[in-house]
Amino acid sequence: MKLLKRILKWAGIVILVLVVVSGLFLFVSYWQSSNDCDRDIAVPAHPMKAIRKCEYGSLTLRTVEKPIPTDDQVLIKVRAASLNAADGHLLRGSFVMRPLTGMRKPKDSRFGIDCAGTVEAVGKNVTQFKPGDEVFGAANGAIAEYVCAPERTLVTKPDNVTFEQAGSVAVAGLTALQGLRNQGNIQPGQKVLVNGASGGVGTFAVQIAKAFGAEVTAVCSPRNLEQARSIGADHVIDYTKEDFTVGDQRYDMIFDNVGNHTIAERRRVLAPNGVCVLAGMGSAGKHEGQWSRLAGNLKSFFVSPFISQKFKFFIAKVLKVDLGVLRDLMQEGKLTPVIDREYPMSKTAEALDYLEEGHARGKIVIKIE
Ligand SMILES: NC(=O)c1ccc[n+]([C@@H]2O[C@H](COP(=O)([O-])OP(=O)(O)OC[C@H]3O[C@@H](n4cnc5c(N)ncnc54)[C@H](OP(=O)(O)O)[C@@H]3O)[C@@H](O)[C@H]2O)c1
User: Which is nearest to 216 in space by CA: 238, 197, 199, 201?
Assistant: First the structure.
């Protein structure tokens, strides 16, 4: 009895010390966290305009020092960039992520990922690009007049698309491609349903699934039915009138950008060995039901190994080889990025607000002039 009491006493002390130490650690790291906005010099030697998230929740257009490429980097004069759901999440900085992204302020104040532009200069180890080349891909801090990126996240821009179109491709295009091909193992002739077919990822998914030879059903709101048909959907479902999980049709793959149906409902319309690719949880921004959708996606991920139909969660990766696949599809005329609206860089915050209303019809582009 005495021994048990001593064990409990010491366990209590250890837990208390751990709580106090981690509290202190969080407190110190909270007040110490800063970013390059605090260090920006008043008059940059080589000034450029860029969007910065100096504080969580707000975007500012600042005059900052033009970046210098390292030996392995390419300096791009940005012509167009685009917004993604992740940009809004990073801007708000959920408390779960803050130990990584910065406790009080974002550690990295740069903003935007997708971009297209012209190569201005290259580091001495860069072999695939030269000044003057037109490129697109992913670069941290894309919403700026200039940005640096490693050559492995860029490919050459096809001549038959605009900078605005190319600058909207990276994150959404890679998500659609990797979801359909790597997770869904898409095959010609398969029946593929894209839930959430009218937004950034959905408009790429419909076209890429068609390019792989699938028979595509697009689920969207009534105002987007025509758009879905125009980018190649064979069938369209208006989700305000029809629930795709109650019909007689069976699908080899559901590419799900929304996650607003239960596992049982989706299994009902999946073929016996069908795959549900869990790409997203609905529109960009905060919206009702996102936590229940997250819980649903987590549950389906854990249930999946024990059933014949598969539910596959994934996070897209920026891979040069896949950017090359998207480039070739555009060059062959099989993929044309759908642009909803274009905003100047000074209106990036407004553009993000529009995206986060949750009814984007394709991609939201930031033009850098
Ligand atoms: N896994 C990854 O690596 C990855 C990468 C990028 C994005 N994502 C996620 O993928 C999701 C989609 O991203 P996004 O960029 O395409 O967002 P988005 O541009 O905001 O588009 C979302 C679309 O969802 C549609 N929608 C909303 N409720 C719907 C419903 N009940 N049924 C059918 N469609 C509905 C909206 O169309 P209507 O106006 O017609 O309602 C909207 O066009 C997000 O959750 C995002 O976080 C994941």
Answer: 197
